[in-house]
Amino acid sequence: MGNEVSEPQRRPSGSSSRANKQYTFKIVVLGDRGTGKVTALINRVVHGLYTGKERPTTGVEFALCSLNDFATSVGGDRTAIRRDNVRLMLWDVGGQEKFGGKTRFYYEHAVAGIVVADATKPKTIKEAEAWVTDLRAKVANKGPNGENMSVPVIMFVNKVDQVSPKQLSALTPSLKEFVRSNDIMGFWTCSAKEDANLNKPVQMLVTKLLEQRHSDEIKLERSEGYSYKNWQPLELATHCAACQTEFSLFTWKHHCRSCGLIYCGNCTPHAVALRDKGYTTPVKICINCHHALVTAAKQKSSSSSTTTTSSSSSSLSSSSSSSSVSRSAKRPT
């Protein structure tokens, strides 16, 4: 998407094209003054700190962290993280900059947004819509085929430790409407003070960016004229279609190019050419489709052997009959 996503290409299984690559995703952090953008997203998520002191951001502040560092800070296993070296640039845009001419500069090269509201100030939820609108109006986001796409956005409702469950429940309808009307990925209530519910949403956002960057979606040319009966949208897959392993930031999703469903890497170990579907070089297929192809090939081979044996027998029988007729013709009367 935007500056970070390129057209997916068909490539053989085991390709090392992703290895050792480095990607930097610029994510702008938006919201009115006092919502806790710095305390929640910059200090707590990136640095693991909470000072309890809020100060307004003048202009813009940013923090840079690698995906390895980020995952490790939330208990991830450094060795289990994707080979890609992913870095996040979190740009905190000062609340006073809203609608200002400088935001276009701050948004430049951004690929996603995080908007922060204050649970103690319901009006900041309404103001969040203005931030999302401003971001999408100033960031040109094109899909792999040149189509217009919305910049992915997630929403944090911070300071839930300062409101009662009843007050939080009263906010839920407006939050759900905000998600629906603004087409964002979702909202999460959180607390920078208690370090609650901050990391998983960021992981989900990064996962989406990585998936869009290395989309494994099936994109056949129109001229090939093939459509997948059971094609499964990448963003809707939460579990492997074979082993039911839950997908996370640390697992790749793979479309089986034979059936169109989505599997984990362990369930797509094979790569074969599927000429009937337009793939002349090896592409990933799931273990089920691979088994079906192997079985079909064996049956075809067996059938061919049976046909050959039958033909040989017929030929021998015919030859024997001819020899018998020839001997009869030569026998004296």
Automatic annotation (TrEMBL):
Top-level taxonomic group: Eukaryota
Pfam family, one: FYVE
Domain FYVE-type: 234-294
Biased composition (Low complexity): 301-327
Region spans: Disordered: 298-333
Record flagged with keyword Nucleotide-binding: yes
Alphabetic keyword roster: GTP-binding, Metal-binding, Nucleotide-binding, Zinc, Zinc-finger
Tagged with keyword Zinc: yes
Molecular function in Gene Ontology: GTP binding; GTPase activity; zinc ion binding
Coiled-coil annotated residue ranges, if any: none
NCBIfam families noted in UniProt: small_GTP
Record protein name field: FYVE zinc finger domain containing protein
Native source species: Acanthamoeba castellanii (strain ATCC 30010 / Neff)
UniProt lineage: Eukaryota, Amoebozoa, Discosea, Longamoebia, Centramoebida
